[in-house]
Amino acid sequence: MCYELILSTTSDEDLSQYNREEIRFNQNVPDYLPVNRLLYPNQWYVGSRTGCSCSFRHLYEPDLGFSIPEDWFPEEESDIEATQIFVRLVRSLLAKGENVDCIDSWHGNKEPFPPMSVNLGQIQDGEFRFFENYHFDFSINT
Fold this sequence. Notes:
This protein is an alpha/beta fold. It is built from one helix and eight strands. A six-stranded mixed beta sheet has the order 2-3-1-5-8-6, with helices on one face. A two-stranded parallel ribbon has the order 4-7. The longest helix is centred in the middle third of the chain and has 19 residues. It is globular and about 40 Å long. The termini are far apart.
């Protein structure tokens, strides 16, 4: 089983131009993923170096919130970098006036996907991580 990250945005930009080893954007979103829950018209599957979305920073629950990597919870450097690439792209889209949301789904889960408003103006790139089965709606207010 794997994490599966889907993103939607109001931007018509081809996000696949940002593909690299750590992160890949594909508009062919598998039918079984909850795209009907996304808020915006342009929808993308976001894969990582492993093909699925497992190689990003993830936590099961949001209890620990957003935070930099800690020694007591080892994380792969490549997962940290991939997550920061994701956040920088979302920041870039928001700065252009676009809207962005995403769902971090565990394979096969249909719901619930509790909403989580994420103000990227209040957290650093290195603090961001995904929470399993949550629906993130991004903003960038300071």
